[in-house]
Amino acid sequence: MRHVFVWDIFVRLFHWGLVGAVIMAFYTMETSGAPFLFPIEVHAQAGYVVLGLLAFRWLWGLVGSYYARFRTFLVGPSGSLDYAQSVIRRSPTPYAGHNPLGGWMVIIMLMSLTFQAISGLFLSDDIFFQGPLHGLFGGDFSKMLMRWHRLNSNFLIVLIGLHLAAIVVHRLMGEKLVKAMFTGVKTPSHTPVDSPLSGEVKTRWIWALVAVVTGIAVTLTFWLG
């Protein structure tokens, strides 16, 4: 059983950073927010962190290491259907990175999180918090975004539930996804169909610096603005 290095350090830090920020965002809105004095402020700050992480990930998906790039794991409808049929037959095509269904789930989740983070910039609770872009397009626009922000938060809960269910299913199939997101290494039982050409999996450090700086700049712009 060969070891395959799949997730670079930046993808892993992004993933766990996003997990922490999203948990904080949900906690400060769905509970009393103790021990924070102004939970809405902490919620907003968690959103700024999410926005910065997403800015990094969208850029890293274009210029990052092999398995981080969107073009590595996004396939068309026919390829996704073929993979779904292989899963139904209980003989799924082996992938080291995201399989076709998982790849589309990643994109949907990134898009939903991006909308959630950006829409939050326009919102206000009319008491303690006002987003940095609140009122930019008028009060009616902010009110509309507030409704969609709440609806999308419920959609995100569904997506997160599906993600956790997929982790359990893959674990039952012998694939330790959580461990791989800590170590970056997977041990597929068969040769994956998405194996890179020699050298393609290496991290591009110049682009990594650009992506990281972009993410940090986005977060600080709104946090300190």
From TrEMBL:
UniProt-listed SUPFAM superfamilies: Transmembrane di-heme cytochromes
Compartments in which it is found: Cell membrane
Coiled coil: none
Boundaries of every Cytochrome b561 bacterial/Ni-hydrogenase domain copy: 6-184
Membrane topology: Multi-pass membrane protein
Transmembrane segments: 6-27, 48-68, 101-123, 153-173, 205-224
Any one Pfam family match given in the protein's UniProt record, by short name: Ni_hydr_CYTB
Main location group: membrane
Keyword set, alphabetical order: Cell membrane, Membrane, Transmembrane, Transmembrane helix
Keyword DNA-binding found: no
Protein name from the UniProt record: Cytochrome b/b6 domain-containing protein
Native source organism of the sequence: Vreelandella vilamensis
